[in-house]
Amino acid sequence: MQLKNDLFLRAARGEKTERTPVWLMRQAGRILPEYRAVRSSLRDFKELVETPELASEVTIQPVDLLGVDAAIIFSDILVVPEAMGLTYEMQEQKGPIFPRTVQTLKDIEQLREADPEEDLGYVLEALRITKRALNGRVPLIGFAGAPWTIFAYMIEGSGSKTFSKARKMLYTEPEMAHKLLRKITNTTIKYLQAQVQAGANLIQVFDSWAGILPPEHYRTFSYAYIKEICEALPDVPVTVFAKGAFFSMHDFANLPCQVIGLDWNMNIAEARAALGPDKTLQGNLDPCALYSDFATIRKETIKMLDAFGPDRHIANLGHGVYPDTNPDHVRCFINTVKEYSEQMRKA
């Protein structure tokens, strides 16, 4: 299907664009009253994730209501461990909780490598429904968590300030850690390949807990597996967003992916220099900047656009949009990107 707006994909591939494309991590939901209306009619977050028609509806809402240049399928990175046999709960105000965690080799052996259609068919069906409903208006992003981030949740059982249990295993039981990472990676590759088959135009890999590892451990227990995932997806562009992994920019230059996401703590010029000319950068406005007044949002957005320059940039936040952000402030950010980046190219 011919895309009516392909700015996002062209920028990802490093092609010239008439303006900078823009979307937001966590744009599907959270800030929109229309999302909350759908969410409040259901039992919980997981019911929304697992109901393809409704997941598709909230995926498309930001395209209609905010004017973003790409849709990202409404789902969660923790559907992967659940598909492998480790169920999670999403608790209000607390986030994800795993009632049972991985602690022993036997626990790892009992996990299965998931079959995408059988175990994650609801996500694939949501992608197919969304693809039809978008009808080529904008590209559709599929995603998964990086193996290290999934591993961290499976060992720890929830979010953590230190992930000390997960990190302890890397020192004390490295072979066991690799066995679990291998199973997660195999599942993730099959899952993402199935997402592409279902209609995803680009895949984003989220390594949310990259920044808590020392560089050597990151190369061994995260980067190596992300590289494998990128190599397994030759048919679509891939974005890697590794929050806090500023120490790995030179390594990321060698990843077989097209886009590197920067969080708001990363220096744009340093990242450009480390990554070289062949990577598109995505990001990286501080999500808290959207709490400011319109004049400040415009000023900060323009400063960001000037730092990235007109080429090989996808505008985004440096992490997901926060749930109490005013949607009009998000629109101010999006509209500033569109208007100013178009002017940049004409100047």
TrEMBL record:
GO function terms (MF aspect): uroporphyrinogen decarboxylase activity
GO biological process terms on file: protoporphyrinogen IX biosynthetic process
Span of domain Uroporphyrinogen decarboxylase (URO-D): 21-30, 141-157
Family: Belongs to the uroporphyrinogen decarboxylase family.
Lyase as UniProt keyword: yes
SUPFAM superfamilies with a match to the protein in the record: UROD/MetE-like
EC top class, as a word: lyase
Binding site for substrate: R26, Q27, A28, G29, R30, D76, Y153, S208, H319
Localization in the cell: Cytoplasm
Residues spanning the membrane: none
One Pfam family it belongs to: URO-D
InterPro entries (UniProt xref): UROD/MetE-like_sf, Uroporphyrinogen_deCO2ase_HemE, Uroporphyrinogen_deCOase
Role noted for this protein: Catalyzes the decarboxylation of four acetate groups of uroporphyrinogen-III to yield coproporphyrinogen-III.
Pathway participation: Porphyrin-containing compound metabolism; protoporphyrin-IX biosynthesis; coproporphyrinogen-III from 5-aminolevulinate: step 4/4
Protein name in UniProt: Uroporphyrinogen decarboxylase
Keyword Cytoplasm (UniProt): yes
Record-listed E.C. numbers: 4.1.1.37
Site (Transition state stabilizer) location in chain: D76
Keywords noted in UniProt: Cytoplasm, Decarboxylase, Lyase, Porphyrin biosynthesis
